[in-house]
Amino acid sequence: MATARIDKWLWAVRIFKTRSIAAEACKKGRVTLNGSQAKPAHTVKEGDVVGVKKPPITWSFKVKQAIEKRIGAKLVNEMMENVTTPDQLELLEVSKINGFVNRAKGTGRPTKKERRELDEFTDPVFMADFDFDFDDEEDI
């Protein structure tokens, strides 16, 4: 039975863009193998379940074939099976729907509406038709 390093396998099946990012995720405890944390050099074999924390959810993949060389995107389904639980996928959908709606005011870039309100507030107001001659001064 073939085996492969978990960091190489994660890179080969395109879960991570580079092998160094995959190894870093393993070191930070974001990757599990059959329920326990995995170091980058840990080996995977056919039938193992790999869990990857990518906020906001934890993805789960069943290893169909252990490989260490990167493959084309069309061949990924032959090497692994996505077994992520439905409740995790629901969390992903909820986070996509919420998106920027729950952004706290004052954080990040202002929305178009907020920018217009800021511009309106900061632009000087010129009163061209205002008469600076006070009529009340004559009465004094």
Describe the overall structure.
The chain has 5 helices and 7 strands, in the order E-H-H-E-E-E-E-E-H-E-H-H. It has 140 residues and is α+β, with helices and mostly antiparallel strands. A 5-stranded antiparallel sheet has the order 3-2-5-6-7. A two-stranded antiparallel ribbon has the order 1-4. Strand 5 and strand 6 (57-63) form a beta hairpin. The longest helix is centred in the middle third of the chain and has 13 residues, at 86-98.
Q: What's the SSE blueprint?
A:
Elements: E1 3-5, H1 6-12, H2 19-27, E2 31-33, E3 36-37, E4 43-45, E5 49-54, E6 57-63, H3 76-79, E7 80-82, H4 86-98, H5 112-122
Antiparallel strand pairs: 1-4, 2-3, 2-5, 5-6, 6-7
Helix pairs in contact: 1-2
Q: What gross morphology would you assign?
A: rod-shaped
Number of strands: 7
CATH topology of one domain: Structural Genomics Hypothetical 15.5 Kd Protein In mrcA-pckA Intergenic Region, Chain A
Topology pattern, helix = H, strand = E: EHHEEEEEHEHH
The CATH superfamily of one domain is identified as RNA-binding S4 domain
Distance between the termini: 105 Å
Biggest sheet details: 5 strands, antiparallel
User: Judging by the overall fold, what is the CATH architecture of one domain?
Assistant: Roll
Discrete helix count: 5
Strand content: 15-25%
User: Unreliable segments (pLDDT under 50, ≥5 consecutive)?
Assistant: none
Please tell me the overall pLDDT.
Answer: 85
CA-based gyration radius = 29 Å
Assembly category: single chain
The secondary structure category is: alpha+beta
Q: Quickly name the level 1 CATH class of one domain.
A: Alpha Beta
Spatially, the strands of the biggest sheet line up as 3-2-5-6-7
Please estimate the helix content. 25-40%
